[in-house]
Amino acid sequence: MRYFIYCLATLLVALTPLRADSPLRDGDTFEMVVGGAPREFTEEFHLQYAVSDGFVTVQYIGRVKAAGLTPSQLSSAIEKRMRDEKIFTNPTVMVNLVANQRVIIVGGAVRNPGRQPWSTDMTLSIALASASGPGEYADDKVKIVRVGKAEFFSRKAIKKDPALDPKVLPGDYIEVQGEL
Hints:
This protein has helices spanning 2-15, 39-42, 71-84, 124-130, 155-160, and strands at residues 29-35, 47-50, 55-58, 62-65, 92-97, 103-108, 114-117, 138-146, 149-154, 173-178. β8 (138-146) and β9 (149-154) form a beta hairpin. It has a five-stranded mixed sheet. Strands 2-1-5 form a three-stranded antiparallel sheet. The chain has a two-stranded antiparallel ribbon with strand order 3-4. The chain starts with a helix and ends with a strand. The protein is elongated, with a radius of gyration of 20 Å. It is α+β, with helices and mostly antiparallel strands and 180 residues long. The chain has two domains: 29-97, wza like domain (wza like fold); 101-178, Roll (Outer membrane lipoprotein wza fold like). The relative contact order is 0.17.
């Protein structure tokens, strides 16, 4: 039964679409489609791109800042650069995130440690549940490492007051303290 619930939870998380207003981060992959000009001129831009070191490199215009921007903001920035560089007079750029690229890692004293798909509504409690919950010898403390900075949370405090349950972001490493 526990395995069935785990599979169901994993499936629900995996099928949750990425919100279009989620900011892009390093490692995100997206497809770009350019319109507003004849297809034979825009076809070479229809590729998959990856955000690396906060930037994406687009043919003819070079590096464009992508990290921290939403897909629609990135589209606008690329459209502006295409106009400024006089590549197209009135381009329309669409940026579509490639699904299931965003993950978290849950480790430490949990039943099923490893990579878990991230969803926009994911909290620490949901992340722990996606790893089948804390193990038998798990401590109360849980550490979230985000961009090299660690923060500790109490599972008991979160259970008493769900408002203390922090949001989890893609790329977070979550470690339940305790013995394996």
